[in-house]
Amino acid sequence: MADELDQSPKNWTESQVSDWLKSIGVKEQYIDKLYEEEVNGQILLTLNEEFLKTKICMKSGPAHLIIQKRDELINSKQRSQEKKKPNSGKKPELEQKSVQCVPTSDGPPAQTPEKDQRVLLERQPATSKEDCKPRPFDQEGIDFIYVKHRVLQPESGAFNLTSPCHEFKSFAVAAALDRTRLQAKFAKEVLKFATGCMNIRSNGTIHFGVMDSKEDTGYVHGEIIGVPVKEKDIYVDALDYIERSVSSDKEHVRQCVRPPRFIEVLDWESTEKRYVVEVDIVPSISIVKSKVYAVRLPNFKELTNKVEFEKETILRRLGSKTEPVSDKDLSDFYQRVKDRDALREEAEKNKFLSAPEICQDLGRKLTMLMTSGKKFIEKEKWFILVTNKFQPDDLSNIDWLLNLNIFCVFDFDQDSKIDGLCSKYLQHHAANMHSLQSYRILGDTTIKEFTNQLHLFEQTSWIFCNGRTDFKGNEPPCDEMTWIKTKVTFLRESVSLICKQILPKGTFQVIFLVTSPVEKPLLHTFNEFFTDMEGHEDIICICASQENFQKWQSFAEGSCGKDTVNNSSVVGMKMSHINATLQQVQPFKSCASKHLPVFVKGTCLLETHEEEQMYSLEILTVDHCDETSEDFINEEKANIEQQFYRGGRVNWLNFWLAERKFVGEVIERDAYHEVLKLLHDTLKWNADETPVKSINIYHHPGSGGSTVARQVLWNNRRDLRCAVVKPSYSASLVAQHTVELREYEEKDPEKCLPVLLLIEDTDKEYLDDLRNELEVAVNTKRIQYGTPCFILLSCRRSYDPERRCKESPLQNVSVTHKLSAQEKRKFSGKREALEEQYEPEFILTFVLMSEGFHVDYVQHFVEHLLQGIDRQSVVTRLILYVALLNTYVPNSFISQSHCEALLALTIYMERFHQHEFEKSLSPQAKLVFLHLRDDKTHLESIRIIHPLVAKEILQQLLGQQTQSSLAMDFLCEDGLFEHRFGRDEYLSFLRALFIRRSRISKGDKYDSLFSPLIDHVREKEKSPDKAIELLKEAFQRFHKNPFFAQQLARLHYTYEKFEEAKYWAETAAKQLPNNSYILDTKGQVYRKWFQAKCKAIESDDEPKTAHNTADAMETALKALECFQECEKAADADMENVNNSGFFAEVEVGCSLLKLISSLDVFAHGASGHSECMKYMLTDYIPEEVKDAWEPFHGRLKKLHKTMQDALEWISEDLSYFQTDIGVDEEETPESLEEKISQPLKWLSKKSSEYGKYFSEAYSNALLRQSFPANLTPFQKRMIIYHFGGGNVTSILSKLTDQKDAVLLLENILSLYPSNPIKAKFSQRDIVNYIMAHISLNCLSPETKSVAPMKDLQALCRQFPSDKRKCLPSALFLLTLLFWPEDHDTDQEKETKYEIVQTAVEHLEKDYRTKMKDIPQRRRRLYTHFFLGSGNGLDKFVHKKKFESVTKVFSASEKRLKWFRGEAWKKPEIAKMLKCVSGWTEDEVVYLEGPQKKKFSMLPLHVRSVPHSNENITFYLGFTFRGPVACNIVVKK
Q1: CA-CA distance, 1403 to 1407, in Å (whole number)?
Q2: Which of 279, 576, 1012, 1489 is disulfide-compatible with 397, CB 3.0–4.6 A?
């Protein structure tokens, strides 16, 4: 530490300040506080006691200590400096001034004024200072800059007369003097130096603002400091002293002394402008020949307060000083004038004869720099451009720029968008305008979110670094100094963000394109990139003019040395030459045009900037890849082919090369022809077809599904508009871009080519969303129904593709590892051809594929591969990690920069970066690793050539080691976990490894309870403890992520470790108290615990008493409490549907009732049961349970009510939405423990069970179907529940699947009073009573038990008159029962319509609440009845009736038939239903009939509504949202 603190305190970092505070004994808490407040060395020197006490809240003692020790520190540094440089004679003024504020060591420390502290600080010598060159001597129009604290070569004497000698003056004190004093001082120094040079005939430069060691300690000799210059003319006019100081040959001196030059000094720390003032002396022989010059030097006398002149002297340069010629040397000096003239003449002649500079081969240099030594500029390399104002001529030569992959441009030209580079670039490409502030990353935004917000990687980001003239926002351009004050921090942040978090080293190159004079902000930008990129390898400077380069060069050489600057700069090459040179090394021809097919069979031009606006799509054009340059093909074709056959994803170039016969053809699998056939069928015009069609390719992972899909696109690119959806864009954005692509350059939306859209590896939900968005778009465009507009070709992983195919042969195609006989022939022929060209290991995946991925073959291959591998090496560890990820996480990879971090590669030779990385891999790794590039970011990553190979490697390479210990090592690999590039992806894969459960619906083999890795550790390794340990470690690594805690809770309760499970569930719930899925897990912990306790009680042969069941009771009630919390949270969550809480509450309730009724006191026959009922339903408490159950009484007595509410809630939810969860349906991501697969059956069963517990005493009576006369209404209600008449859904489910449905319904009705109107039913009872009648009538229309319609309508009048208080099911009944009959009078019809319309209004409101913000297709409305042709109750036709017509189809086909509206066309169905009339107006359906108020209907399928206003007919369906219109047909 001592060494670290040896440097000047001014340069200390926050942690060095903390170390120092520790060393002087300050308390930890204050050190932390100062660290948090970001106190570094610079700030430490400005602190005072007041600040420490008020802002840091320190006590006076420590505050005083810190200030005292700080001042001692400064003084000791000061004294050590002085000792190092002993001074002779009188101290100069500057030093005297600065010493006044140094306290004496014995007195108390004086408070050092802030400004003087800065002076002290500046005088701490830096450890080593960079050298720099002086400004080129006596050249006009040179733009040059100095950097503060850099050092010029020491002062020198004359050695060849034309190379100038130098003299330095700090001038620090003089610069602050008034005009008269300053001019006298300046003139004195210049004239003394000038005549000295002229007399010895040597060129010279005198520098003011450069330290001369004589004058000042603490600085190095020749160190550039600069002086503040208020008015330049003071210095220029000072030379008027020549006339008064020189008696003869005044004009000679005038001619030899050049006017002062003011060279700016760049200072990183301060924004004050400083200059070095320089005067050049050029004694040309033609002027000074045979002359000697005498001078009277001016001097300001303080006594007389005016300028006086010293006596005349002759001066000369001796070594590095200017001395007067003494009297005794005078005659000798005059005699040697001739010699000096001769030397001067010779020197001037030689100067003109010096050889011309050798001309560099700039073209080769430029191409080498741009291609990093390769033959072509890499397609995937990102370029960052830093530039200033472009000259108009240069703008016509920027084709090379338009072809580069430009990540962002730092543009210092505020008019760039009006008439500069930006305006020109926008004619060819899309770009987003940003300012430096746009790159400030807020709080908890991840890098991925940030790059998405700014659309980085999609379109070029154009950063206006110094304002933008055409922009109305508050971004005014400012001058250099203001820029440095206000913008330099933003610049620093943005450069740092790009270099340190977004683009890893080696993936990008920075080009400084200097096209006009360099200003300081540009130099600041260089400095930031140089620092953040840790060097200069990937920075290039291109500068057309030598003059502009000078300032850049003078600055950059200080940072990286003369050679480096020279080697990485291309200077003096015209833009037109640059343009021509670079276009030759670009992999594609310059500005090639792209075309799309059009409806009338020609093509149209696709502008690049238009294409970039559709950035969520990769558009396949007619002439795709035609722009590839000949040389590039010859160079790369073998690599491209080999990469594909090794297992890389197919590339458009693969097809192109095959099509052009550069390489052999790509095999067409059988599936390719199947897809083509399906595609052909979908393109036929068909009035009943939807405008958005789907074809699904299901494929085994790694079996070539993606190749088939892309081959279909490639071969149809001339007839359809083809595109691939890029991952991670929202469905709405993709739909918007797809519609734009379809209509691009077409006049009539009706007449466009269909778009063939490939969507890879997305779930069904995304596809549904996309289809939905596209259908809405087609509707709003009013395109005629039946026109094929979009074909979605979805390509998804599946472990059972053949099954998917059987389910829906009209839509699905499978691709598997098994080859057909014909495919085997093709593959073996191709393999022979390839093996002539390549070694088998270089076309590995193809070889495995032609073997059909036979298990033995893969096993044998991996054995052979792993022979002689070094199992201890870090590369082998990398292979294992990648294999583990690839085995368990589909489509996973590890980024190359992560691999480098693990292999600890810090490759300084960036130019050969990729080469270095590959060199560091073992031979085995080279064979099994496949290098991928991200389509969007172009960042490289690694995966194993095939998932089956990964799995086999994992098994064989682990040997004795278990997967759990490997996973643990992987988790604890800090180098990978903390690595900052590609971090979001890496962490998401790692998270998936431990948490993602496999689902058949997502293409996995089976549905798992935990992630497949955790399952493997639990089951195959038989070590649940290891699994727990792994998840605990992951929980810690992922910053205590609550979802890991949730998994831990589930894992623990699976093994009945309930205390720990409870701890983990609570940990998760504490962090996410409103997440219903986590609250559900918490409830499940108690539920399983309760089940375990019940089991224990059962296995004891003890009789059950209140005492030995109390513990289980408490757990059950705790579970119920958790599930109720879960219900509340689910209800409040507007984005998701989670009804697991209600289901679980009923399940636990039933188990609890079972336990209670099995207690000894309640278990004996009817008397025991009535005792139980009395306890559960009244205030009565039996003695036996009084004390033991004391805490539970209140909650148990509420049980029948809360369970009934939960059952009602489920029933209502099921009456709204379709519940036939099909084979294809997706589930919620954190789906429940026990997914209720058939909710309708479950509800009937549980309602009946619930009824049974509360009506058990009569179970014997129930069997005989005769009921005692003395039953209370509650008991009757419970028996009704037991029979399945307790809620709407149970009653309606009798229509679909019950043997004795008619008998049960008759029994249910017999339990109701004979005169219901007088019976004062509750609203629920009325609903259930009427539903039972309607259902019975549907099942058995001839039965006597059904009440007439009139009675049921009369009963409905008992519903609350305030319809807001009606249950949805009551409103639903109103729409059914009051639907007008044909024989009603007009007046009756009108009255009924009013009732129905009021009910519909309120149903719609309830529906909105129930629906939340969930997309409709995820909760489809359920149509319970259709309007039939009968009268009275007979006019309600239940869906069940249609079954006989449609039962020939499979479930998914049946859905498709209804969905497309084909089913309605069947004559059997038409006979059952009544056709009603109406019209459409602005795409809203209205029913013909009601007079007072128009009755608008919801169409069951939006897409079936005609766009124009038409007369229509349709069938009517009844749903819980109101009546809906089905099968809408326009009246001809």
Answers
A1: 6
A2: 576
Higher-pLDDT residue of 90, 1164: 1164
Note the pTM of the prediction, 2 decimals.
Answer: 0.74
Residue-by-residue DSSP string for 714-748: HHTTTTSEEEEEPTT--HHHHHHHHHHHHHTT-S-
Per-residue pLDDT tens digits for 903-951: 875 544 344 455 567 777 877 788 778 777 777 777 888 888 888 889 9
Cβ atoms of 1252 and 1200 closer than 8 Å: no
Model confidence pLDDT, tens digit, residues 1207-1256: 999 888 888 876 544 333 333 333 444 456 778 888 888 888 888 888 86
User: Could you tell me if 888 and 881 are in contact, meaning their C-beta atoms sit under 8 angstroms apart?
Assistant: no
* Reduced 3-state DSSP string for 1071-1087: HCCCCHHHHHHHHHHHH
Both tokens of 1182, joined, read 């039996």
Residue 947's Cβ-count burial label (10 Å; 0-12, 13-18, 19+) is buried
By CB atoms closer than 10 A (0-12, 13-18, 19+), residue 835 is middle
**Residue ranges of the alpha helices (H) in 436-545?**
447-453, 480-486, 488-497, 520-532
| Residue among 1029, 1134, 1127 at smallest CA distance from 1083 | 1127
Residues 6+ apart with CB under 8 A from 278: 135, 205, 206, 207, 208, 260, 261, 263
SS (H, E, C) 942-1002: EEECCHHHHHHHHHHHHCCCCHHHHHHHHHCCHHHHCCCCCHHHHHHHHHHHHHCCCCHHH
**Packing angle, helices 1024-1037 and 963-971, rounded to 10:** 10
CA distance linking residue 751 with residue 771, whole number of Å: 20
Give kind and range of the element (H or E) at residue 813: strand 812-815
> ∠ CA(396), CA(397), CA(399), 5° rounding?
110
Which residues, other chains included, contact 1025 with Cβ-Cβ below 8 Å and sequence gap of 6+?
A: none
pLDDT at position 6: 61
| CA distances, 622 to each of 428, 713, 723, 746 (Å) | 19, 11, 11, 16
Query: Any idea of the CA torsion for 1063, 1068, 1069, 1074, to the nearest 10 degrees?
Result: -170
In 987-1061, the DSSP E strands lie at none
User: Is 596 strand, coil or helix?
Assistant: strand
Alpha helix locations (H) across 372-420?
399-402, 416-419
pLDDT for res 1430:
84
Q: Per this entry, what is the length of the chain?
A: 1532
How far CA 1414 is from CA of 235, 290, 1279, 1294, 1417, in Å, comes to 77, 100, 37, 30, 8
Q: Which of 1372, 1425, 1360 is nearest to 1403 (CA)?
A: 1372
CA 5 to chain centre: 41
Amino acid at 1148: V
Largest CA distance in the chain: 153
pLDDT tier for residue 1486 given thresholds of 50, 70 and 90: very high
Interatomic CA distance for residues 1320 and 1275, integer angstroms: 16
Contact 510, 533 (CB under 8 A): yes
Task: List % helix, strand, coil for the chain (3-state, nearest 5).
Answer: 50, 15, 35
State the average pLDDT over residues 1096-1105. Answer: 85
Task: Pick the range with the lowest mean pLDDT from 479-493, 840-854, 1128-1142, 1398-1412.
Answer: 840-854
Report d(CA 1292, CA 1243) in Å as an integer: 11
- As given in the structure block, the two tokens for residue 88 are 């002779």
Burial 1319-1336 (b: 16+ CB within 10 A, else e): eebeebbbbbbbbbbbbb
The residue with tokens 């500005």 is 591
739: left (phi over 0), alpha (psi -120 to 50) or beta: alpha
Q: Could you give the count of Cα atoms lying within 13 Å of 1190 in the half-sphere of its Cβ?
A: 2
The answer to whether residue 1094 scores a pLDDT higher than 60 is yes
